Structures are given as C-alpha cells and as structure tokens.
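Sequence in, structure out.
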Amino acid sequence: MSKTHLLKTKLFKKHLLIMVLALLPFFQINAFAQDDLDKRVKELENKVKDASQLKFSGYGQFEYRNIERTSYSASPYPVSQNEFRIRRGRLKAEYKTDLLGAVLQIDATQGGLAIRDAYFDFRMPFANFVTLRGGLTKVVMGTEILQSSSDRYAPERARVATTLVPGERDVAAMLTVQGPKGHVLNPFTLNLQLVNGAGIASQYANKKNFVARLSYANTFGDFKLGIGASTYQGGVYQPTNKVFKMDGSKFVPDTNAENRGQYASRSYIQGDLTLTYKSSAGSTFLGGEFWTGEQPGTSSSSQSFSAVPTTDIYVRPFSGIIAQLGHQITNTGLTVAVKYDIYNPNTGVSGDEIGAANSNTTAADITHNTLGVGLIYEPVKNIRFTLWYDMITNETSDKLLPTSNDVGFINDRKDNILTLRMQVKF
C-alpha cells in the first residue's frame, strides 16, 4: 500500500470519527424525544381508555294525553281532561371497568328534577359471574318492572306493577349470580335483594324486605325464550292495634293489643314468560306475567306505602295478569301491539259484595281491566312515535253509589286514555 493511500485512509477514519462524535448528541436527543413521545402516547391512550369507561345516554318523551273523564295512571302529575307534558326526561351517566361500575340517572320534567337510579356495582375479581350492588335501583320483580320505559310498547306500566311497586325502584343491596360465559349455566341469573320497602322515598321502618328472582334467557335459532320467577317477602308497620283481614267476603278486624308496632304481611309471588320470533315478515313478541299474594293498604287504597302508615291496616289477597303481543313489520319501521292487564286488589270479594253493609269493603277493592292497542313508528333508530289507546273497564257494585265528590261504581267509569307520544334517544 502506498504512503499516499495510507494517508488517505487515516484521514478518512479521522473524519469518520469526528462525524460520529458530532452526530452522537443528535441521536441521543432523538432517543430522548422518542421516549417522551412514547410516554405522551401512553398517557393519551390511558385518557382515551378512561373516557370510554364513562358514557352518557338518555331519552326524552313528549306527549299529548286525552282522558275521557276520570282516570288512573302511573303519572305523578294531576289528572286533567287533556294535557301536553314531558313524561320523562332522562339523563344517565354510567362508569364501568372490569371490576367496578356506577350509574346515576336523573329525570327532568315540568314537575321538577328527581333521581331515578344511583347505584354502584362491584364484580368479584376471582368470580366475575358474581356482582354486588348497592344503591337506588329497580326491584327485581318481573319483566314489566325491569324493562326500560323507552322500550315498552304501552306508554305506562300495568296497574298491578305500579300499585305494588310504585316507581319500580327502592334503595337496596343486591347480589347477582349469572352462569359464566360459555358454561351451560350462563342463561341462568339469580338476583337476591334486601330493600327498604319505601320505594324511592326515605326508609320509614327498621324491617328490611327480601326480594329474589331466578330467570332464564336463551336463543334457539330464530326464537328467543325468557322465563322468570320472583318473590317479595316483607311487611308494613302497623301503627294501631287494629288490623283488618278478609274472612269470607268481608274484612274482620283483629284488635289484639300486640298488633301495634308489628308488621303486616307484604308477600308477592310473580312469574313471567316471554317469546320472540324473527322471520322474513318481521319480529313478533309474546309476553305474559302473573302476580299473586297479600298487600297491606288502607281502607281507601291498596297502594304500597311510601311513608309511615298512620291509620288501620287492611291486608288484601290480590292477583294480577299482564299479557302483550307485538309485531314489528320488516322494513317499515312500524310495530303494531296489544296489551291486556287485570288487577284484582281483593280476590276475596267481588261485584255487589263490595261496599255491602258491615263488610268494610270500599272502592279500593274494585277490579280494573285495561285493554290497550297501539301503533309505533320508528323512522330512524333514535326516534319513536307512539299512538296508543287504553280502554279501562272496572268492576261494578250497586253498593258504591255516586257522591258529590265521586261518580261511584254502579257503572263502568268513563276513563279511557288516548296517548300521542314522541320519544328521542341520545
């Protein structure tokens, strides 16, 4: 190798070393920048993940109602001949992770602002098919109560449900067990609740009520089957020593001095069956529900108490039936539906026996039947229009004569209800 070539080689190595040393800080700066960029991307991913765990949803219902004369409704607002109203204005915030969940739902209407749901869930880390819940939540008594008011065909729930479980909710502690995914027991769900018993109102007694529900839901090809059974076992505080119970076709008072401060039986048994079938003609739904048991009330009402009773307690044996059929017509957005429900607040008496002398029975013991028919139109996914007509028929008694404040029950009351509703989900 010549001296000239050797010199050039040494100079090249020297210049290469100088260049590497000069560029080394640049590579170090880029490495630090890349680390910072990776850190920022990771932080952004965590923020996006946190944001996805918190979801907001809601729906609003604006409607016009026309009432023949006197009516019953689950509405908390005063009855009038006809009215515009915001029936529901719901806003729901839901936070959910693998182990934790929380829901807060409020209802804003012209009547004011109210809390509808406020509960917290904890899923067991080593048994994720077990969930604990605490807070204001729905009472697990049948599909009529558990189904969202945004999805039902009829504008309002059946009379038996709104009478026995007003507001559909209570402050409760609940254990839910559902079969693990992929397991033969996955279609089964068991719910166990301890509830205050006062509904959405504040607790008014020390005694807790127990609610249990076992349900099964599964799909078989084009069919979806649901079966459920529920029970409610509790009591209502007795403020006096006089408790009325049915003996034959009349109420007989029990005047035992020890009755004061005890609890009258509040006991329900419920069963339900639902079936959905999908075909080229659309989706058809058929559902049925049955209630029976004992309901404490007053002489003038069988409604469940939301405050401490101050009068004598009347314990009534009751029954209720709910049946509904709906068909969603393919590619039209139209659904036709019919619903029929019966609430018999006192199965121990009927007809002209109600209001008879010395029977202690009143209009609170009258049976009501409701036949509702409707047409539902959903032009797009989040908008629904409902036209619904409820035909309400009451039992009659020639003992319940008209008074200056009431039309009586010697004839069927004029209390049918026409509802036109627009619902928007978001």
